[in-house]
């Protein structure tokens, strides 16, 4: 729609030249010539040559003149076809150029750094400490608690940072958590999609990489053909789809539309309102009936059938369909529509859709509108002097579903204005027909580095019932900085800062599988953490984090040992058997609940020996234990998972029963 250069609004139409109006050749004064014969013929020939040459030169350098010539000398259909093809050519070139740059960066690689930090206000820090340690936290006497309080009191910044690099599909990432500007721990990832190898590690925990060979488990991802096609694309994207292919494809299908367009109506120098400005555009309008749409579909399908680029991608590179099937499916679709056309299946009277195209004085498409009865979708931009305006609108049954209005003023290379987004809530099951408007104000926005996306500018986001969100962006050749003062409910929570930078080159080292701990994907369920890292290594890692945060060596050691025991299950896994109360220490097995249900024999009991087996079962309840005056029995079959499902998984339940049976068997042996 928008020419790359013309989209900067620097074409003659936006320099206050007459748009779509009358043009005449100037600079030649009237001359009265009295001589006749050869002299007159010579002068006339020279004059004609000068005028003709000037006209050719003007046509060659001015898009406005080109557009006027086409507009005045062609039929509406031919003019519209020229505009469509000319704009699609520009779009194709622009997209192709961006794609080419993307491939170049893919080949050379990209390196990026990002740092996100939050600096809470003193009030917020105090509230956080109170929520964790109570309002009287200052009165704590024990040094251990004070250490943790000091972590929050003495650190003014909390952050996450990352570095990443990618090149030809390979990827490496290093992320970390920082406290007070110092890194506590990190996480690294490396990937080689071509070999289907992936590696992760926490360097502070263990230098050795933990690797996975996904190529050995292709069934997890799909067929080998799909994986191989993906690998080929990653090796050389341009061989899969070249920049020239993209440009040609855009022009190919735009050409189908341009050739199809008929019964075009032109309105020259039409006044078009865009927000609060009025511009003059040529408006090309075309009605499409249901039959027209069907014919267009046939033309597009025929072009697709003969499209060697698409056919080659689907049949040779992706192998999702063979060539014969590709052609047969398209032929069937074409024949089906043609049969319906012969049978007058499609309506040829009423317009199914109306397309309006807004064209400026240079022949550049500046907007389009698609209408159907009381529904339409509009997108359009325009400029009057230094005032730039734009609209996007969707309407259903003459009611706005949403609108986007752009208002900007140009000052050199800087732009100031607002972007207003309005959504009609009646389309979200709200009967009040209320509309919600979000406004983004921007001031002095300018591009610093287009390639890397660096820019300057201040932004304010206004959302109903929410404090304004103020974001400041500053950049230089070295990187981008973004800051946000978090004010919520009138309270300032602190400053959020984001810094990032890019560089279009990268060197990536993929870990050696020989030195890494490789996980067999086919035996993934058998992998245990202790297979890769020892409890001592984990304990040292956790202790190191506590110490870096400001906890003493002694306290850090105590807490790291407790956490290590929890993670590695090195707490007392044996039941602490006591003859008096059957006290089981393992909380995971919830034996306290069982003890409550155990009924022990006493002197007041009736003679249990006289009870039937059913009586014994009833007396035991669901605990699984059965008692009589003569014996002590443990019946695992009496344990029901439903009685324990709120406390443990079924796997843990089964382990509990097995352990209980083992220890009760031991008890019976000792008792005998």
From TrEMBL:
UniProt entry tagged with the keyword Membrane: yes
Keywords: Membrane, Transmembrane, Transmembrane helix
Membrane-traversing stretches: 40-61
Region entry Disordered, spans: 1-25, 595-635
Bias type Low complexity, positions: 618-628
Regions of compositional bias (Polar residues) in chain numbering: 8-23
Protein name as catalogued: Uncharacterized protein
Organism: Ruminococcus flavefaciens 007c
């Amino acid at each position: 729609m928008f020419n790359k250069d013309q989209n900067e609004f620097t074409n003659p139409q936006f320099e206050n030249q007459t748009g779509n109006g009358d043009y005449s050749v100037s600079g030649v004064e009237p001359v009265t010539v009295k001589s006749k014969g050869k002299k007159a013929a010579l002068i006339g020939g020279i004059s004609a040559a000068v005028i003709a040459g000037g006209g050719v030169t003007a046509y060659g350098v001015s898009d406005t003149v080109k557009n006027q010539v086409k507009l005045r000398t062609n039929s509406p259909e031919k003019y519209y076809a020229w505009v469509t093809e000319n704009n699609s050519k520009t779009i194709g070139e622009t997209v192709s150029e961006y794609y080419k740059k993307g491939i170049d960066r893919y080949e050379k690689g990209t390196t990026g750094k990002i740092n996100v930090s939050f600096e809470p206000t003193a009030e917020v820090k105090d509230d956080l400490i109170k929520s964790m340690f109570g309002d009287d936290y200052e009165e704590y006497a024990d040094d251990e608690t004070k250490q943790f309080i000091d972590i929050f009191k003495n650190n003014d910044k909390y952050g996450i940072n990352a570095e990443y690099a990618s090149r030809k599909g390979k990827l490496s990432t290093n992320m970390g958590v920082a406290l007070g500007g110092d890194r506590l721990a990190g996480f690294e990832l490396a990937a080689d999609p071509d070999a289907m190898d992936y590696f992760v590690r926490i360097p502070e925990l263990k230098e050795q990489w933990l690797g996975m060979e996904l190529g050995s488990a292709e069934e997890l991802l799909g067929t080998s053909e799909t994986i191989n096609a993906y690998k080929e694309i990653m090796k050389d994207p341009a061989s899969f789809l070249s920049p020239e292919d993209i440009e040609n494809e855009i022009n190919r299908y735009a050409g189908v539309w341009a050739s199809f367009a008929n019964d075009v109506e032109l309105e020259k120098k039409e006044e078009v309102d865009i927000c609060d400005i009025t511009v003059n555009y040529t408006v090309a309008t075309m009605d499409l009936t249901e039959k027209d749409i069907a014919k267009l579909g046939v033309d597009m399908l025929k072009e697709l059938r003969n499209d060697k680029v698409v056919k080659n991608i689907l049949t040779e590179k992706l192998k999702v369909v063979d060539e014969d099937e590709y052609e047969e499916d398209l032929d069937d679709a074409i024949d089906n529509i043609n049969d319906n056309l012969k049978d007058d299946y499609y309506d040829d009277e009423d317009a199914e859709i109306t397309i309006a195209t807004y064209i400026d004085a240079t022949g550049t498409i500046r907007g389009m509108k698609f209408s159907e009865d009381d529904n339409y979708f509009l997108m359009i931009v325009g400029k009057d002097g230094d005032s730039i305006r734009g609209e996007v609108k969707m309407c259903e049954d003459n009611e706005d579903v949403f609108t986007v209005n752009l208002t900007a003023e140009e000052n050199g290379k800087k732009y100031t204005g607002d972007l207003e987004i309005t959504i009609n809530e009646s389309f979200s099951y709200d009967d009040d027909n209320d509309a919600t408007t979000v406004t983004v104000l921007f001031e002095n926005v300018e591009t610093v580095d287009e390639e890397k996306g660096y820019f300057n500018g201040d932004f304010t986001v206004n959302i109903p019932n929410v404090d304004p969100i103020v974001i400041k962006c500053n950049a230089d050749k070295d990187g981008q900085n973004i800051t946000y003062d978090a004010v919520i409910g009138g309270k300032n929570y602190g400053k959020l800062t984001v810094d990032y930078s890019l560089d279009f080159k990268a060197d990536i080292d993929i870990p050696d599988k020989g030195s890494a701990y490789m996980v067999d994907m086919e035996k993934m369920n058998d992998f245990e953490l202790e297979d890769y890292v020892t409890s001592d290594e984990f304990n040292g890692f956790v202790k190191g984090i506590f110490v870096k945060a400001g906890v003493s060596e002694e306290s850090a050691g105590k807490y790291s040992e407790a956490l290590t025991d929890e993670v590695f299950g090195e707490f007392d896994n044996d039941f602490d058997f006591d003859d008096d109360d059957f006290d089981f220490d393992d909380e995971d097995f919830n034996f306290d609940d069982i003890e409550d249900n155990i009924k022990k024999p006493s002197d007041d009991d009736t003679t249990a020996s006289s009870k039937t087996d059913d009586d014994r079962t009833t007396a035991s309840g669901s605990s699984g234990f059965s008692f009589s005056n003569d014996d002590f029995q443990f019946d695992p079959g009496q344990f029901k998972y439903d009685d324990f499902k709120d406390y443990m998984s079924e796997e843990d339940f089964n382990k509990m029963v097995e352990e209980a049976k083992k220890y009760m068997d031991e008890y019976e042996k000792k008792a005998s």
